[in-house]
Specification:
Elements (H helix, E strand, L loop, with lengths): L1 H28 L6 H29 L3 H25 L6 H20 L1 H8 L5 H26 L9 H23 L6 H27 L4
Helix pairs in contact: 1-4, 1-6, 1-7, 2-4, 2-5, 2-6, 3-4, 3-7, 4-7, 7-8
Length: about 230
C-alpha cells in the first residue's frame, strides 16, 4: 500500500509538472488548431514527446550522466531556435501561406515546448532507485496519460476565447508564454543560469511586447492601418 501511494504520488507530481505547461500552450494555441487533423497532430505530438523524452532523459542520466552536460548547451540552442522560428513565422509571415508551412511550424512548436520533459528524466532517476524496472517504465506511460488529460483541458479552455484572432493584449500573453520556453532552455541549458522562472517570463514578456509594438508600427507605416 505504501509503495502504491508512492508510485501514484510520483506519477502525479511529474505529470502535473510537465502537463501544466502543455495545458497553457494548448489553450493559447487552440485557435489555430481548427481542424481534426491539426488537433490530432498537436495532441499526439505533445503527448508522445512528453512520454518518450522523459524516458530518454532517464536513460541518459542512468547510463551516461558523465557526458550529459556536454550536450545540454546544444539542446538549449536547438530549443531556442525552434521557438524563435515559430514566433517569427507566426508574427511576420503571410497568414495565407500554405498549410505545409503551418504543419512544419506545428511540429517545431511541439518539440520546442517538449524539451523540458527531457530533463524531468534525470530528476526521476533519483526518485526511483529502489523501484522494480516494470514500475519505472509503466510510470512514464501513466505520466503520458496525465499529459493527455492536461492537453485536452487546455484545448477546451482555449475554445472559450471564441475569436478568430486574439487582440494584441492576448497575443502578447500567447507569444510571451511560448517565448518563455525558448529562453528557459537557453538560459538553463546553454548558459547554465539558474534564474527564477518568473524573471524569465517577465523578460520574455518585455521582448514580445517590444516586437509587437514594432510590428504594429510597421503595419501602420506600410498600410496606414492600425492592428
Amino acid at each position: 500500500m505504501q509503495f502504491a501511494l508512492e508510485y501514484l504520488f510520483a506519477c502525479l507530481v511529474m505529470g502535473t509538472a510537465i502537463g501544466m505547461d502543455v495545458a497553457i500552450v494548448s489553450a493559447l494555441y487552440s485557435r489555430q488548431l481548427n481542424c481534426i487533423k491539426q488537433r490530432t497532430i498537436w495532441v499526439s505530438g505533445v503527448v508522445g514527446t512528453h512520454t518518450v523524452l522523459p524516458m530518454c532523459g532517464y536513460l541518459l542520466s542512468f547510463y551516461g550522466i558523465k557526458w550529459l552536460p556536454a550536450i545540454a548547451p546544444i539542446l538549449g540552442v536547438i530549443a531556442f531556435a525552434f521557438i524563435a522560428y515559430y514566433l517569427y513565422q507566426e508574427m511576420f509571415s503571410n497568414p495565407n501561406e500554405g498549410s505545409e508551412l503551418h504543419h512544419a511550424i506545428s511540429w517545431s512548436l511541439i518539440f520546442a515546448v517538449s524539451w523540458d520533459a527531457l530533463w524531468s528524466g534525470p530528476a526521476k532517476s533519483a526518485q526511483v532507485l529502489e523501484w522494480q524496472p516494470v514500475f519505472v517504465w509503466t510510470s512514464f506511460l501513466v505520466v503520458g496519460g496525465l499529459v493527455y488529460v492536461f492537453t485536452l483541458l487546455g484545448l477546451r479552455l482555449g475554445k472559450k476565447f471564441g475569436q478568430r484572432e486574439f487582440p494584441m493584449a492576448l497575443q502578447w500573453v500567447q507569444y510571451s508564454a511560448i517565448a518563455y520556453f525558448g529562453l528557459l532552455a537557453l538560459f538553463s541549458y546553454t548558459f547554465s543560469l539558474t534564474l527564477p522562472k518568473w524573471q524569465i517570463f517577465v523578460f520574455s514578456s518585455l521582448i514580445i511586447g517590444l516586437v509587437l509594438i514594432y510590428r504594429q508600427k510597421m503595419l501602420y507605416v506600410f498600410t496606414g492601418v492600425k492592428e
